[in-house]
Amino acid sequence: MKNPVCVIVGAGPGNGAALAKKFAGEGFEVALLARNRERLSELAAALPRAQAYACDVIDTASVSSAFNAIARDMGAVDTVIYNAGKGILGDALSVCIDDFESAWRVNALGAFVVAQQVLPAMRQADKGTILFMGATASRRGGAKTAAFAPAKAAQRIFAESLARAYGPDGTHVGLIIIDAVVDEPYARSQFPDREDSFFCKPADIADSAFMLAKQLPSAWTFELELRPSGERW
C-alpha cells in the first residue's frame, strides 16, 4: 500500500524540520522544499522516505518544476504545509517598497501558487489537506509590522477562501496562528533571559499540525491558535 505524501514548503530549521520529522515518523513520504536544496540534504538523509527539492515560492516556474518532480518521484500529494515566510519588520517609513512587495510575494503569492499546484488532484480524489503556518500579525497591524502584517493577513484571507470553496469537495484547509516566539537558536540568542515557558516548541507545533491533518470531515478545524503558557494575550 502506498504511503501518503506530505510536502513541507519552507523546510528550514525550526518548524520546517519539526514538521518533516513528525510526518515522516507517522509513515508519510516527505518532500522537503526550500530555495537551497543542499541545505536540506542532511535533514532528508536523517528521515525515512524523504527527498529534498529546490523551490523558490515566488517563482511560478520553480514551484511547478518542484511539484512535477514530486508527482514523478512520490505520486499524488495528500498533505501540503505552507511554512514559507518572510518576517520583514519596520514601520511604514522604514520599510521600502521592495520589502513590502517581497513580504507579500513570499507569504501570500507563494501560498496561492502552491495551492494551485495541489488542488486539482485533491479535488479529483475528494480528499487532501492544505495547512498554512500563520501569525498573530494577520489579525492586527503593529507599529513595526507595516510589511509583515498585510502579507500575513492576505495569506489568512486566502486560506479562508480556499476552505470555503473546496472544503465541501473534501479538501481540508487549515490555518495555524502562532502567537509566540518559536524556540530556535536565533530566537534564544535574542531573548537569552527568557524561561522555557516563553517559547513555543517546534515539535509541539508539529504535533498540532499533524492533528489537523488527521481530522475527520465531520469535525474540521479551520483556524487553530497556538501559544505557550507564558504568552500574554
Annotation field: number of helices: 7
The rounded Rg comes to 17 Å
By CATH, the superfamily comes out as NAD(P)-binding Rossmann-like Domain
CATH class: Alpha Beta
Envelope shape: globular
Spans of at least 5 consecutive residues with low confidence? none
Please tell me the overall pLDDT: 94
Q: What fraction, in percent, of the residue positions are helical?
A: 40-55%
Structural class determined from secondary elements: alpha/beta
What is the topology, as strand order, of the major beta sheet? 3-2-1-4-5-6-9
Number of strands: 9
> What order do the helices and strands follow?
EHEHEHEHEHEEHEHE
* Count of distinct structural domains: 1
β-strand percent reads: 15-25%
CATH topology: Rossmann fold
Task: Please give the CATH architecture.
Answer: 3-Layer(aba) Sandwich
Distance N to C terminus? 45 Å
InterPro entries: NAD(P)-bd_dom_sf, SDR_fam
Organism: Candidatus Methylospira mobilis
Protein name: SDR family NAD(P)-dependent oxidoreductase
